[in-house]
């Protein structure tokens, strides 16, 4: 249908391209939500109701989109939030997101379930960084991750409290998605 990134003109085009290119279980893991996906659909509807209201008849020579977030100036009023298992859907995973965050001067986050280590992200990217901490039963593991974030100059830690137990992701059950993934021939159709 689209085949190429340059043919994507809106978020639904990107979604359809991802559906074409990714193995079915991975696409549905990214695209889906928990249970009957009611919250997912409500969130989508809420975003669709948001209007961007342009300031008209204003000078455009010096447009400044920068904002301050957690005491850091970023060039855009948005940032890349942490997402687990990013190398499932891009061969560079968090590295690719880090490169884009650096290019555009904004925050990016990595998950406790990142596919790239805290050390590498801390060493290789100077843009502001957030670490999403899942609290584990192993207090030593939690302490170790927090210390690494300090040592590698992360700017913030986001405490995640929504995954005490894994969500009932019905789409994942239907497509056979597992973490780590276990692909079979049918996964690609």
Task: Describe this protein's structure.
This protein is α/β, with parallel strands linked by helices and 189 residues long. The protein folds into 2 domains: 48 residues, no CATH class; 97 residues. Helices cover 35% and strands 11% of the residues. It contains 7 helices and 5 strands. It has a 3-stranded parallel sheet. The chain has a two-stranded antiparallel sheet with strand order 1-2. A hairpin with a 2-residue loop joins strand 1 and strand 2. The radius of gyration is 19 Å and the shape is globular. The model has no long low-confidence stretch (mean pLDDT 88).
Q: Which structural class matches the secondary elements?
A: alpha/beta
Q: How many helices in DSSP terms?
A: 7
Q: What characterizes the major β-sheet?
A: 3 strands, parallel
Question: What form results from the Cα inertia axes?
Answer: globular
SS elements, strand count:
5
* Helical residue percent band: 25-40%
- Termini Cα gap: 16 Å
Q: Report the sheet-strand fraction.
A: 5-15%
How much is the radius of gyration in Å?
19 Å
Provide mean pLDDT, rounded: 88
> Secondary-structure element sequence?
HHHEEHEHEHEH
Number of domains: 2
Unreliable runs, pLDDT <50, ≥5 residues? none
Biggest sheet strand order reads: 3-4-5
In short:
The protein is α/β, with parallel strands linked by helices. The chain has helices at 11-21, 24-31, 38-48, 94-104, 118-124, 139-151, 170-175; strands at residues 67-69, 72-74, 108-111, 129-134, 156-160.
């Amino acid at each position: 249908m689209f085949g190429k990134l340059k043919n994507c003109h809106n978020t639904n085009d990107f979604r359809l391209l991802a559906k074409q290119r990714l193995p079915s279980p991975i696409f549905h893991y990214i695209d889906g939500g928990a249970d009957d996906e009611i919250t997912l659909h409500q969130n989508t509807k809420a975003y669709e109701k948001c209007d961007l209201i342009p300031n008209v008849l204003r000078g455009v020579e010096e447009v400044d989109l920068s904002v301050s977030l957690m005491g850091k100036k970023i060039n855009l009023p948005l940032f890349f939030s942490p997402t687990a298992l990013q190398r499932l859907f891009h061969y560079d995973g968090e590295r690719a997101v880090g490169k884009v965050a650096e290019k555009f001067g904004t925050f990016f986050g990595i998950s406790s379930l990142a596919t790239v280590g805290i050390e590498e992200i801390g060493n290789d990217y100077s843009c502001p960084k957030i670490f999403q901490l899942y609290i584990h039963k192993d207090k030593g593991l939690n302490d170790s991750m927090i210390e690494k974030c300090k040592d590698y100059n992360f700017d913030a830690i986001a405490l995640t409290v929504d995954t005490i137990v894994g969500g009932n992701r019905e789409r994942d059950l239907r497509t056979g998605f597992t973490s780590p993934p276990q692909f079979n021939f049918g996964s690609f159709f």
